[in-house]
């Protein structure tokens, strides 16, 4: 019999190495706008969930839908890890055949958190589009996350691709 491994439903204290990331825990929902030279601009609805299992990482799950017709656009799954008191790592898998490792800094402020990351490795399956760099910025203030994503893909230099504002759902 196969059993699923799920995040615990009862409260688990975050691992001490990631305790300063605790404000991210939970589900966040909002909307954003995407653009890139090779596609038509679009609006989207998004949900991100940060969870934990008591280990020194946060789980990360992201889903987007087209704001106009509700069709699924993108998803990402992975982990957010601390590499030191002011260093962060984001390890993601995309269903488009891309894996992403981003590393950067975390800045703790009285009003929240700021994460700045750039890709150190992009893996691609043989059918994935050519993505050569990704960069992400997250800013958490109170119950709001603002983020942006930069991308270099299909012959384009790294530039703005996505921006969204999400609010705590719980």
From TrEMBL:
It comes from the Bacteria. It is an enzyme of class 5 (isomerase). Residues 18-168 form the THAP4-like heme-binding domain. Pfam families: THAP4_heme-bd (PF08768). Heme b binds at residues 38, 129, 161. Binds 1 heme b group per subunit, that coordinates a highly solvent-exposed Fe(III) atom. It catalyses: peroxynitrite = nitrate. Keywords: Heme, Iron, Isomerase, Metal-binding. Pathway: Nitrogen metabolism. Its EC number is 5.99.-.-. The keyword Nucleotide-binding does not apply. A motif (GXWXGXG) lies at residues 26-32. Its cofactor is heme b. Heme-binding protein able to scavenge peroxynitrite and to protect free L-tyrosine against peroxynitrite-mediated nitration, by acting as a peroxynitrite isomerase that converts peroxynitrite to nitrate. Therefore, this protein likely plays a role in peroxynitrite sensing and in the detoxification of reactive nitrogen and oxygen species (RNS and ROS, respectively). Is able to bind nitric oxide (NO) in vitro, but may act as a sensor of peroxynitrite levels in vivo. Forms a 10-stranded antiparallel beta-barrel structure able to accommodate a hydrophobic ligand in its interior. In fact, this fold hosts the heme group, which is located in a wide surface cleft. HAMAP family: nitrobindin. Belongs to the nitrobindin family. This is Peroxynitrite isomerase. It comes from Nocardia albiluteola. The lineage of its organism: Bacteria, Bacillati, Actinomycetota, Actinomycetes, Mycobacteriales.
